[in-house]
Amino acid sequence: MTDKDHVYGVIRVNTGLRRGLEGAQTGLSLGDVASRNFTVVTEDETAFEVIRRMWRRNAIMAVVVRGAHGAPRGTDVIGVITKEHVADSVADSIKAYPR
User: Fold this and answer.
1) How many CA atoms lie within 13 A of 51 on its CB side?
2) Which fold has domain 2-94?
3) Where exactly are the structural domains of the chain?
4) Is the distance from CB of 59 to CB of 40 less than 8 angstroms?
5) What is the pTM of this model?
């Protein structure tokens, strides 16, 4: 989520919940539900650096941006990494080691 093109918050979208709420009038805006509990990483950082930064900041998500200049803008965002992505990656790497 951006405010005046500055990264402002993140929202985890649960597709099942989203389908259930389609058309519902809640009176809430995306800004009301966006979490500020995220960190920003650049596309050239290693997985370990991203995990370390997420852990240190107790972030639910890392917003991946292109370039390393000042405050990131919405147009710099190229992806996100969630704790679930990290867990899935670790679990997948364990499969490489036979019992």
Assistant:
1) 10
2) CBS-domain (3.10.580)
3) 2-94
4) no
5) 0.74
Query: Beta-carbon neighbour count of residue 2 at 10 Å?
Result: 14
Please report, for the chain, how many H helices and E strands are present, in that order: 4, 5
- How many residues appear in the chain? 99
Contacts (Cβ under 8 Å, ≥6 apart) of 79: 64
Name the 3-class secondary structure at 22.
coil
- CA-CA distance, 5 to 70, in Å (whole number)? 13
Query: What is the mean pLDDT of each successive set of 10 residues along the chain, which is 99 residues long?
Result: 79 64 67 84 92 93 84 87 86 74
Note the pLDDT of residue 38. Answer: 92
Contacts of 86 (CB under 8 A, 6+ apart): 47, 50, 51, 54
Identify the pLDDT of residue 17: 57
How far apart, in whole angstroms, are the C-alpha atoms of residue 72 and residue 8?
10
Site of tokens 């402002």 = 8
